[in-house]
Amino acid sequence: MILIENLVKRYGKILALDHLNLEVQEGEIYGLLGPNGSGKTTVINCILALLKFDKGSVKVFGEEIRPESYHLKKQIGVVMQNVAVFEELSVYENIDYFCGLYIPEKLKRKKLVEEAIAFTGLEEYLKFRPQKLSGGLLRRLNIACGIAHKPRLIILDEPTVAVDPQSRNKILEGIKELNRKGSTIIYTSHYMEEVEQICTKISILDRGKCLATGTKEELKRMVKTGQRIVIDTVVLNEKQIEKIRTLPHVFSAVWKDQCLMVHCTEDGENLIRLLSYLSQEKIPFGRVFSEQPTLNDVFLEITGKALRD
Ligand SMILES: Nc1ncnc2c1ncn2[C@@H]1O[C@H](COP(=O)(O)OP(=O)(O)OP(=O)(O)O)[C@@H](O)[C@H]1O
Fold first, then answer.
1. What is the pLDDT of residues 30-60, one digit of tens each?
2. Closest residue CA from atom 4 of ligand 1
3. What's this model's pTM, rounded to 2 decimal places?
4. Is 28 domain-assigned?
5. pLDDT per residue over 100-112, tens digit each?
6. If both were cysteines, with which of 102, 169, 230, 299 could 149 make a disulfide (CB 3.0 to 4.6 Å apart)?
7. Considering its fold, how many domains does the chain have in total?
8. CB of 283 within 8 A of CB of 240?
9. Does the residue 44 lie in any domain?
10. Can you give the pLDDT at residue 308?
11. How far does the signal peptide extend, from start to end residue (predicted)?
């Protein structure tokens, strides 16, 4: 669907995209995950030929895209970061207007507009002007305007920024539904939880570079952070900590402030093994906490900083 090779984009002295490569296959929900300023919006603008770039190539549906490639652009739905709707039109009129840019036939359009309204849950607000809508509803209207014509490819640039949890869930579920109905999705975000929740493939971006690509499981396997187990234990001696370090799959164990923290490589038995050892040694323990690595761990290990730094 999209093939980007060696893309370079500068804004004056700022190198926004640095030889970026990316390939999106049909049917994917492709996440571009990166902190603010990593180049996500710039990639989107290059895919849409809204920006001139300095080097490289961008192919959409197998063709080099140009500003006048309307036959390609009409198969793409875009939901930009900044809400772009007409203040003087109602909710219904806005969706109808944007859908009308692609679908001139009235009857067909009416059906599509109604589907988009139901899909974004805006039925109660059809006569409202945008300024009367809450932030979350406004975002949903923005989405309805971008997807009503049922495009083959949908690009959403941070659609959940400043959105309440209820609207956020509705938006995320909606994106999965659009994908199930056949649209390929490109989704940019700096929220790793969202990207983990919905994306089938993820590229991690930083400073205009694509640092790693894969499914969330593949990305997590790339780093050694592994499973993290935290156990409250009041007593533990150095010999016992040393023994824990030699347990299978354990690569670090630290006891600090009456809290044992163990990092292990992936294995379903890590927690059981560790608790068995503590029981066998009659070491009392309180709260037990275990978590798998997150995409933030991946980002941290690759870049040396957290996603939200
Ligand atoms: N029109 C512009 N003029 C100058 N610099 C720009 C312009 N647009 C973006 N940049 C810079 O290019 C880099 C990439 O910005 P971009 O907006 O693509 O990142 P982003 O990952 O989408 O971040 P955000 O989520 O904050 O929009 C940043 O350093 C940004 O300051």
1. 999 988 889 999 999 999 999 999 999 999 9
2. 11
3. 0.84
4. yes
5. 999 999 999 999 9
6. 102
7. 2
8. yes
9. yes
10. 65
11. none
Name the CA radius of gyration of the chain, rounded. 24
List the residue whose alpha carbon is closest to atom 1 of ligand 1: 11
179 Cα to the center of ligand 1, angstroms: 28
The number of C-alpha atoms within 13 Å of 178 and in the hemisphere containing its C-beta is: 34
Q: What is the CATH number of the domain that holds 235?
A: 3.30.70.100
**Residues in contact with ligand 1 (CB, 6 Å cut-off):** 11, 14, 16, 34, 36-42, 158
Enclosing domain of residue 256:
227-292
Q: Are residues 89 and 46 in the same domain?
A: yes
Tens-place pLDDT, residues 251-287: 899 999 999 999 888 777 889 999 999 999 999 999 9
> Quick one: 14 and 98 in the same domain?
yes
Cα–Cα distances in angstroms (integers) from residue 121 to residues 55, 115, 137, in the given order: 42, 10, 9
Of 194, 221, 248, the domain-final residue: 221
N residues, the chain? 309
Q: Is residue 306 part of a domain?
A: no
Gap from CA of 33 to ligand 1 centroid (Å)? 14
Instruction: Judge whether 7 lies within some domain.
Output: yes
Distance CA 61, CA 79 (A): 19
Q: Tell me, in angstroms, the distance from the centre of ligand 1 to residue 14's CA.
A: 9
pLDDT tier, 309 (very low <50, low <70, confident <90, very high otherwise): low
* DSSP letter for each residue of 110-148: HHHHHHHHHHHT-GGGTT--GGGS-HHHHHHHHHHHHHT
Task: Output the domain CATH number for residue 87.
Answer: 3.40.50.300
Domain termination residue (choose one: 201, 221, 241): 221
pLDDT digits (tens, 9 = 90+) for 148-163: 999 999 999 998 887 8
Q: Please determine, for the modelled complex, whether the ipTM score is greater than 0.90.
A: yes
